[in-house]
Amino acid sequence: MSNADFFPIERNRYFYGKLLTVRDFEVEQRYARQKSQLLNRLSFGAGVVCGLGVTAVDDTTLLIESGMALDYQGRMVVMEEPVLRKLQMLEGQEELQGQPAAYLCLRYDENDLEPVNAVGVDAGESRQFNMTREGCRVYLTAQPPEFRSLLEAQGQANICQLYASQELTLVLSVPEAVCAGEEFQIQVLVVKNEKTPPVHFRLEGECPFAESENGRLSLEFRESGEEKRRVYTASFQVKARQLSEMDSPLFPASGELDLELGSHHYKNYIEVDAKCRLCRDQEQLSAYIRSLDSLERRLRGRDLPVYLAKLELISSSGSMFLASVTNLPFRQTMGRESGGGRNGGLEGVTTSVRSLEYWQKPDVKTVYQPSTGSLHFDFGIPAPEQYDYAVAHGTVEMTMPGGLRVNSRIYSEEIAHGLGPGAVDIRLSLEFADRERDGETALIYGNSEIFKGKKAPATPPWAEAAALVYPQRGTMRIGLWLHDMVEGNRLTVHYFAQKPERDTSRILAQRKIGLTVTPEFARVSCGGSLQFQGEVTGSEDRQIHWSIREENGGAIDRNGVYRAPELPGTYEIIATANVDETVNASAFVIVE
Q: What percent of the chain has pLDDT over 90?
């Protein structure tokens, strides 16, 4: 194997009278280093062992914590103390002008120290260095990783880039082997920028070894609006069919990628070069995985750096500023954070989040893949609860007292505010005729003293209003505090009452979710097929569940393809909206 850092492994053979030269001492050092680095790489992998977190101190400065990592040659990369650096002080910053994002990378580095005069060497080499210090190199690059090499070095297989642009990159990963009848995991790495709109994609095609209603596998992902990560993995749980001893690509006839990115819509057929072996049981699966495991595969990616952070940048007036920092975007961690090495424990833990309706209960699904030692958690998180508000408005006539009204207080009778029992929010305003606008009716909210003075645009009455609410009775009393004389015998007080509600059924009714099916009536011959189309309105969830009312009325798959029975008759096709099971529509087919 061609790897100058590991092979060939040679050691000194000592004997009496052996002449020891510089070469012999170098071999002595190299032997110990090779063994240590090879053991590190094969046993522990590569990535951050501890520390090395990256934070933004301000919009131009990064703080890198002290820590240690193992690189892809098994060498220890140590940062013995925290480092504070301006973006302009980091290597590679000159190439970032105008770039929306960059990666902060870490590599092993060493420097020669203590120059000394060398005696007895060739001309021109009279000066040598006495020591070599092992350290690290931290630099910036706008070049994204070579994802195939990066993911393969992390133990993933069947890497295929689905989509790549400046805003978004999608990279597919499929296991090399799965067990018949068991679930396995397909992953898509999502890499985006800060201003990238929420991602929605669907990858679909005919798959011979995955269970599905019509032989087509559909991988659909919709990013939650609350998602703040710039790099993450979308995982899909798929169940293998009860077959064995077969090798097949994920999509033999190519896959259809449908991508929505804000107003941008991309649709294309792509070749997915991801070949998978379907094994009959776990024993055969383990044997096949062991047959693939080799020294060459374990030592992949020897030239890869450790990506400490992904930086979102803002360029302005020839300068760069930090918008956000994503630590360890590609999960290059090990030890406590990764859960163990290849030879035992968990290879890694991944998570995904589904957005549920706010009235649905949160749930979590876990899938453990023995062949890869990975554990996946799929969290269903309800969206923030929606509130509806009932409102009421009315007026109360307040009769002024006779005589001197300065510093007087008057109160209304107990009246119903119209929203029934419960806590309500009351706002009050005073009605008055605005002399500056020819007596036009106006309402004053808050402290009317603000409008006192020669330059004030209006002359409202100098009075304050307050409400006393009785939640159990659904009533209130209104009080006025007159700070000065008020013209006339009455003041009109307007009240605006508001009450929050959580009436799910009423909110759902207001959403006006609709469902239509075409064709509504159709004829088909016995044993024939027919395509039904359904459209959901009023909801982002467009998924439809199809069924047939009659027990022997044929069959219909999840895509609306109906296959008629051999028995003539009239049958009802029922479509139900996934977002609300009470919303459905029917179509009728005459089989003749």
A: 20
